[in-house]
Amino acid sequence: MFMAKSPMDTLHFSCIQIAIALLLFTQAKSTTEGSTSALHPNDAIPSCVAGEKSALLAFRAGLSDPANLLSSWKGDDCCRWKGVYCSNRTGHVVRLDLQGNGQALAGNISSSLLGLHHLRYLDLSHNRFDKVHIPEFIGSINNLRYLDLSGSLFVGSIPPQLGNLSNLRYLNLGYISDNTYSTDITWLSRLTSLEHLDMSGLNLSTLVHWLPSVNMLPTLKVLRVTNCLLKNSPDSLLLSNLTSLETLDLSENHLHKHSRPNWFWDLTSLKYLYISGNGFYGPFPDGIGNMTSIVEIDLSDNNLVGMIPSNMKNLCKLESLVSFRNNISGSIAELFHRLPNCSQNKLQDLFLSDNNLTGSLPTAPVESLSNLNQLYLSDNKLTGHVPVWIGELKQLTTLDLSSNNLDGVIHEGHLSRLDMLQELRLSDNSIAITVSPTWVPPFSLGIIELRSCQLGPKFPMWLRWQTHVMSLDISNTSINDIIPDWFWTAASSVMSLNIRNNQITGFLPSTMEFMRAKEMDFSSNQLGGPIPKLPITLTKLDLSRNNLVGPLPLDFGAPGLETLVLYNNMISGAIPSSLCRLRSLWLLDLSSNNLNGSITDCLVNKYSTNMTDLTLSIVNLSLRNNNLSGEFPSLLQKCPQLIFLDLGHNQFSGALPAWIGEKLSSLSFLRLRSNMFCGHIPDELTELVNLQYMDLGYNNISGSIPRSIINCTGMTQTRDNDDLRDAFTSGVYSAGNELVDYTENLTVLTKGQERLYTGEIIYMVNLDLSCNSLMGEIPEEISALVALKSLNLSWNNFNGKLPENIGALMQVESLDLSHNDLSGEIP
Ligand SMILES: *[C@@H]1O[C@H](CO)[C@@H](O)[C@H](O)[C@H]1NC(C)=O
Ligand SMILES: *[C@@H]1O[C@H](CO)[C@@H](O)[C@H](O)[C@H]1NC(C)=O
Ligand SMILES: *[C@@H]1O[C@H](CO)[C@@H](O)[C@H](O)[C@H]1NC(C)=O
Ligand SMILES: *[C@@H]1O[C@H](CO)[C@@H](O)[C@H](O)[C@H]1NC(C)=O
Ligand SMILES: *[C@@H]1O[C@H](CO)[C@@H](O)[C@H](O)[C@H]1NC(C)=O
Ligand SMILES: *[C@@H]1O[C@H](CO)[C@@H](O)[C@H](O)[C@H]1NC(C)=O
Ligand SMILES: *[C@@H]1O[C@H](CO)[C@@H](O)[C@H](O)[C@H]1NC(C)=O
Ligand SMILES: *[C@@H]1O[C@H](CO)[C@@H](O)[C@H](O)[C@H]1NC(C)=O
Ligand SMILES: *[C@@H]1O[C@H](CO)[C@@H](O)[C@H](O)[C@H]1NC(C)=O
Ligand SMILES: *[C@@H]1O[C@H](CO)[C@@H](O)[C@H](O)[C@H]1NC(C)=O
Ligand SMILES: *[C@@H]1O[C@H](CO)[C@@H](O)[C@H](O)[C@H]1NC(C)=O
Ligand SMILES: *[C@@H]1O[C@H](CO)[C@@H](O)[C@H](O)[C@H]1NC(C)=O
């Protein structure tokens, strides 16, 4: 069961897993190496056995080695070749370490390897043996103790011959490729010395009883079967052989069963247990309480409910409890009370974001948390104040309390001893952060998320000392102040910067181009002055709803810009041709400014050398409510992906060009309201099959409605609008929140009222031709536009009868035909 994940949570969670995986890997590797008497190839004594040298050369001959990894494989002493290790006692090759790292070997594995009779260790991981099967003869390398084929891109079935490797201690078949599978693993049961088994990513979907084969391996310490499409996991092992098992990773399978009983709760030797992403449901299992060796447990992304069991108090070795996205409920105080309380508190990581925890954080310090590094409690239902004892958790690197109902004040006392803190996340609470303007924090944060906390009215001075921040969100924090100059220096390395929705005044600095941000949201403030050259790294910028003046920059300076949102400012002048250099731009909203002049045609763009093949990526373009003039912009011929176009409330004039139908074939929303367009509605316009919204109201359009309007299936069929949604929302996710949170709005005149449509505009189907000089009969074809919700033909010169079938427009909520010369009966 996969829940909507907030990206940051996922990030942390996987980093931890990787770190653990690496740790375990190193451990496993060193113990296995210790058991061979391998020697560094530079040690003098042995020289190569002749037969083994020719076996190695034959092996190399089958390989393709584009990166020349085996260039050292020459000369007599094969014990000195890269990746070849000989026993310093016998001189035999005992180990081949041919792990590919970015650069990789490919080709065929020659059976000449069988000539290495003393080979104990074979690592072929992370090479590119794609399209090749794992050779069956590997099962005949009798002395093998260690075999690593992970990530080697072999395809097909795992050969059961591997079951002949009765000396094997370590077997890694993890994530070999997407097309590796096994339909029978009974051969495993013959590997009775096996200590480490990784089959992650192997397609084991056909296996029903997979566990009995594994249960034949009494020495097994590590078992990893994540992402194996396993569907079955028995309630118990009547007789368990797995008494040495320390690591079990069952995560991301399809077990979908009750949390108990389950065979693994009986494995009291377990130190690391990962069962996330399996659709386990039911109460938080009390079997955990018997796992007294447990160091780390991850139960995330299941549907566990209830409180953690009280017997967890005994888990004195527990370092990490990970349970993102479950439904743990009950009071946080009770949960803390049930955490291990031992002479030495080992607990380092407590990950409980996205659960159903309630109540206040306890007022007295919680002894079990005294060594905590990371505390994630976001997206629960916590209330009350943040207690001051949080400030005594001196090892704390991450404090995440966001999206709860916490209130009260956080002051220096909460923060002054958190020297190690790297991430402070308190967004979406009613917390006020009140510190003295002279306070110097002891920490240097990488992530600051304080959205909707109360930081103002003064600009928070302590941010001055936070010069290594990657992500800063102080949006909606009641700051009512001028932005200090130091801020731009302190924030110069921030990648995601959000100060939206405050009352911040001041100018954007001329040095802005030297910042390193990818995303900036300064919208809804009172920033003035012109827009300077932008950071070269910038992809998303929202400066809407400020007091910006002056012309747009002649050189935007951000070649990768994707969204540029500048509506509701006082930007003046013409739209510069430098816009044509923004080849990735897909959302441009310049509406409600003072722009004037006609829209540049990029053919005369001095910045680009060859404009004949120019195409822009623009999908959503809004220029409404400016003073733009000239003809319908011919630049739009270069915008084949345009879906939404709003030129309303300007002074555009001239006829609508016929090329709209051909060049803007994706167009769904066309709004030209309140301009001075004249001439006929070109027939070609009705080639826009997706057109569902056409507003030509308040222009000078003459002629009649083309009968081919029936070809606009956007108006004849109610479509599935999900594909449209992306065109209207910027969909930028940053730290789980939409940064540059853009929703297109339109006002539609229906039932005599201007009505504001926000996100739901995608469902609006509208034909508005009001206040023009159209004439003739209203064509019968109009009544085929049955998806219409609003039809306004008022204030024209239509005459004749109403279309017979107009009653077929069942979805219409607003129909206005007034002020025409229509006659006859209302059908
Ligand atoms: C082999 O080399 C290792 C490491 O240099 C050494 O510790 C070991 O004693 C040597 N074994 C023999 C048999 O020489
Ligand atoms: C691997 O074997 C196949 C089939 O025998 C052959 O076509 C291919 O050339 C071989 N590849 C190399 C690198 O020798
Ligand atoms: C190796 O295993 C296969 C299949 O499991 C078996 O048929 C074969 O006899 C074994 N070979 C040897 C040499 O043991
Ligand atoms: C896994 O294997 C089964 C049966 O061999 C196959 O039907 C299925 O498509 C495979 N799944 C994936 C994701 O490869
Ligand atoms: C435990 O392992 C031994 C050795 O592989 C095997 O003989 C025995 O059948 C196993 N017991 C169970 C219950 O599988
Ligand atoms: C925990 O172990 C005790 C003693 O072995 C046993 O009685 C109890 O049933 C176990 N609890 C669970 C939940 O497995
Ligand atoms: C928690 O429970 C609610 C209500 O039963 C359910 O809608 C939601 O999906 C559950 N969440 C998780 C993460 O299991
Ligand atoms: C934890 O242990 C200490 C010392 O044994 C004890 O004073 C305290 O009450 C315990 N806390 C909880 C929550 O059980
Ligand atoms: C969440 O907690 C509330 C209050 O404790 C409880 O009524 C509700 O059933 C819980 N929801 C789930 C899905 O556990
Ligand atoms: C511009 O590009 C077009 C199409 O790629 C090409 O035919 C033309 O020769 C180019 N013109 C110049 C001046 O490079
Ligand atoms: C609708 O489009 C088709 C195909 O482009 C065309 O043949 C037909 O004449 C059009 N219908 C009307 C009423 O113009
Ligand atoms: C759309 O309307 C909402 C609600 O009034 C407003 O917050 C938002 O800024 C508007 N978006 C645009 C692009 O005007």
UniProtKB/TrEMBL annotation:
One of its GO terms (cellular component) is plasma membrane. Residues 213-425 form the Disease resistance R13L4/SHOC-2-like LRR domain. SUPFAM superfamilies: L domain-like. It comes from the Eukaryota. It holds the Pfam family LRRNT_2. InterPro entries: Leu-rich_rpt, Leu-rich_rpt_typical-subtyp, LRR_dom_sf, LRR_N_plant-typ, LRR_R13L4/SHOC2-like, RLP23-like. Residues 51-87 form the Leucine-rich repeat-containing N-terminal plant-type domain. It is found in: Cell membrane. Residues 1-30 form the signal peptide. It is a single-pass type I membrane protein. Keywords: Cell membrane, Glycoprotein, Leucine-rich repeat, Membrane, Repeat, Signal, Transmembrane, Transmembrane helix. The keyword Repeat applies. Belongs to the RLP family. PANTHER family: LEUCINE-RICH REPEAT-CONTAINING N-TERMINAL PLANT-TYPE DOMAIN-CONTAINING PROTEIN (PTHR48063:SF89), LRR RECEPTOR-LIKE KINASE (PTHR48063). This is Leucine-rich repeat-containing N-terminal plant-type domain-containing protein. It comes from Triticum turgidum subsp. durum.
